[in-house]
């Protein structure tokens, strides 16, 4: 099977073959890939070079932590790649971004207004929890469609704070 | 745990207190006796002086060690212990109160010729402060005299902003500490945070155990500490050590304490404040001096003299501590909560770990995000840095996101390795995004592709995608196929 792995703006063409081989951008490699704990910890011997990784999956997006470095990888196969092309937005996330409270806390401030243009990773809400003020950021660029909280509000975990479209 | 260990080594019987959510915590299981003192929120349990004293009386405890959080710097607690006939392992309540009042502390130590950060030294009226401001110099801080934790603190760039800042700092200090007294303090920048560990017995002997470099701070929270400091030479160390001892003597200090200094780029040092308790970062001092500070605290509290004289304190090598917090370094340091599903802790030569963790432990939002302290010793700084990198690489905590990746990035930073940093380094000149390696990126791509392939091959077994909340390194639930 052929896959395309996208990290930032770089793409890797990866073909997973039989007998523990992969082709990476046309170069063959030997792989021995194992789960260590049955969930998030993995060991990879790549041409006998030993790597350990912690992986968190979210849809087609993998957050791969190796030696303290985080690489966010989006993987497409031929089918999803075609679909993405059809939508005219290869790998670019679409639709609404809903910023929820990751933990219960107190809203210290809202840094945006409805109708504002926001850039990806821009801070939108300051949430106080665990004695610290935490900046919640929008995962993608867009326009602020809704703001459902104001400074001083107490919020529950998972509560929707801001919607970006 | 740190205190319980010292007690056990001394053959002392120990009593722990805990809140409802901490029933399974290590300290509860490790102590000889344990008593529940209330629900999870600290103000209903760990901050309840009455309940703690009540437990101490019921358990017939002779002394209370307050640790380094919660009530450790609360003079009402120290007083309540004394009144109940229980030894408080720390300074006398009056000394704690005097050093907790920043204005009074500044006056007390400056009388002994110890330089303090330029500013005002008396409780002044607003107009008096505004008149004094130009002499203090801008930018400056308006700080609460009873302050701590950044509350009642305002940064002021120019004189027009001052009146408003004073009003706001006063009202914040009034509501947070019940005391609206504020003072002005010049902002020393760039500066390093260098502090001296003090030990003082009840007979008037005061010694210092050298310095700790604590400039690696994120939003005023220390992340990494080391001893000694690259910024000091023997001459300056001796001078600052003498000043620290003089400051502690001026306060009539007894037990373990810390004198904090700011060191400017011209190597002038200024007294900042005194911490009247054991500090989180005390292990680095223990590692280089070989002195068990907690055991000395117990010894001092029992009225005996210090086991060491200044000339016996001979620091050796280099020690570094990384604070491991339950904060997602790759997501703006958001607190991360959840259950520890797998834990592998670093060991080996020169590694010391103090940790609250075990598999099954629930990291909650109720308390401080500090979950472990990883410390290393090496014969010099370069060795200690390499050892810390090695230990961080071995450390695997699954179930929550932690600050470990932050530390791994920091220990790759040439500025940090070269010792070129000050208190603004993390906030202004460090980023989690900088300097990824191509090789690791390639490996990450291969791993992600292999995982996708595995999911496609076992598509029929795959449950619906997990929710998109990113609390940490969550279970996939679908990797049976890899066995």
CATH architecture of the largest domain in chain B, by name, is 2-Layer Sandwich
Strands ordered across the widest β-sheet of chain A: 1-2-3-4-5-6-7-8
Low-confidence sequence ranges of chain B: 460-483
Q: What's the helix count of chain A?
A: 1
Q: What is the H/E string of chain A?
A: EEEEEEEEHEEEEEEEE
* Number of domain modules of chain A: 2
Helicity range of the residues of chain A? under 10%
Largest sheet of chain A: 8 strands, antiparallel, barrel
- Look up the CATH topology of the largest domain in chain B: D-amino Acid Aminotransferase, Chain A, domain 1
- What is the CATH H-level superfamily of the largest domain in chain B? ATP-grasp fold, B domain
Report the span from N to C terminus of chain A.
34 Å
**CATH architecture annotation of the largest domain in chain A:** 2-Layer Sandwich
Number of helices of chain B: 16
Radius of gyration of chain A: 20 Å
Structure description:
The complex is a heterodimer of chains A (165) and B (483). By secondary structure, chain A is mostly beta strands. Chain A has one helix spanning 78-86; strands at 2-7, 10-16, 21-24, 27-35, 41-46, 49-58, 61-66, 69-77, 97-100, 105-110, 117-118, 123-129, 132-137, 142-147, 154-155, 160-164. Chain A is elongated, with a radius of gyration of 20 Å. Chain B has 483 residues and is of the alpha+beta class. Chain B has four domains: 2-96, Rossmann fold; 118-186, Dna Ligase, domain 1 (2-Layer Sandwich); 191-429, ATP-grasp fold, B domain (D-amino Acid Aminotransferase, Chain A, domain 1), CATH 3.30.470.20; 438-482, no CATH class. In chain B, a hairpin with a 2-residue loop joins strand 9 (206-218) and strand 10 (221-227). Chain B is globular. Residues 460-483 of chain B have low confidence and may be disordered.
